[in-house]
Structures are given as C-alpha cells and as structure tokens.
Amino acid sequence: MKTNIMICGVGGQGIVLTSKLIAATAVAHDTPVMSAETIGMAQKGGSVFSFLRLGEGIESPIFPEGTADLLIGFEPSEAVRMFPYLKKGGTAIVNTHPIMPVTAALNGSHYDGADMLDYLKANAGRTVFVDGDKALAELGSPKVLNMVMLGAAINSGLLPFTLQEIEDTMKATVKPQFIELNSKALRYEG
Predict the structure, then answer these.
(1) Would you state the pLDDT for residue 1?
(2) Residues 63, 4: contact at Cβ < 8 Å?
(3) What's the rounded mean pLDDT across residues 162-178?
(4) For 85-162, where are the alpha helices, taking DSSP H only?
(5) Contacts 24+ apart (CB under 8 A), 58-64
(6) In CATH, what number is assigned to the domain containing residue 15?
(7) pTM of this prediction exceeds 0.85
(8) What is the domain extent for residue 141?
C-alpha cells in the first residue's frame, strides 16, 4: 500500500524534521520511502512543504495534486495553499494557530485563520484540528509543535508506524537533553 503525505507550514515550525523522522522510521522498518522538501525562505518564516511517499512501487518523491492521503498543516493558510494535493476524502490534520504572513502584516490586513479552518473543514474528507497554542503552553515549550502534530498524524491511523516506533527514531535523532520533552509532545493528547 502506498501512502502520500504532504507536510506544510512556515519556516521554524519543524516541518523538515518531521518529514525526516517519518522517513527514518520507514527506513528502520524496511518500508520504501522517498521525500523532497521545498524550504525557500524558511529562515524568514516563508512557506515550507515536504512531499513524503511510503510503500512499494514509488518512483518519485513528488506526487501529483489530488493524491495525498494525508495533509499535515502546521499553519492554516499553508494547509489551504497545499490543499489541492489532498485527495478527495483525504485527511487534513491542521494546527489552528495562524501565523500572519509578512505581506498581510505590512499592508495592515487582518488574518486570524478562521476562514482557512472553515474551508478545510468543509472540503477535506476528514479534518482533525490541533490547538497548537494550548499544547505548547501545557508542554511548556514553543519548540515542540512538530512532535505534537506528528503524534496527531500517528493517531489518525494513516501512518504505518506506532508512536513507539516514531519515538525510537526521535530518540536516536534529537539531542539527549530534548528527548523527554519531545516524547511528551509526541504523546500529547490534550
């Protein structure tokens, strides 16, 4: 079975690390995997997205629009930007916290993400909203949104790995001082 995953957000949210953890877990469990990231202006809060493909018979990391089984959106407008990749009936897991685009901030526009969330809820086959602000406040760190989102993706049942398998990969990847916090974030269910 093939699984196409689109992970998107803005620079600094941990999109690339999330993709790499899933890919490394796939390799550790003999699951064929390919990935490709587009990071652009990531260091300045720009759009970041990652194509991730798991399963037999994949020949390219990039997949066409309308074929992603899972969209993991770390920011509502970025999730809407990448929504065309989600297949009809696909699942969108989206952080509800918006990050104002620089262009909107510069011209004084209003952006609270509500319209984006409404769009996703009305158009995705299944939508799971994650209150990232609440999770990060309860976990006591602004740096583990990626683990919270990855945990929600695992709980969706669309990844062929368990929380423990992803956690084992995370423990082998991150610095020892961050393992406990990342484990808590990965298992967050608030």
Answers:
(1) 79
(2) yes
(3) 96
(4) 102-106, 114-123, 132-139, 145-155
(5) 58/2, 58/32, 58/33, 58/34, 60/34, 61/34, 61/35, 61/36, 62/36, 63/4
(6) 3.40.920.10
(7) yes
(8) 3-186
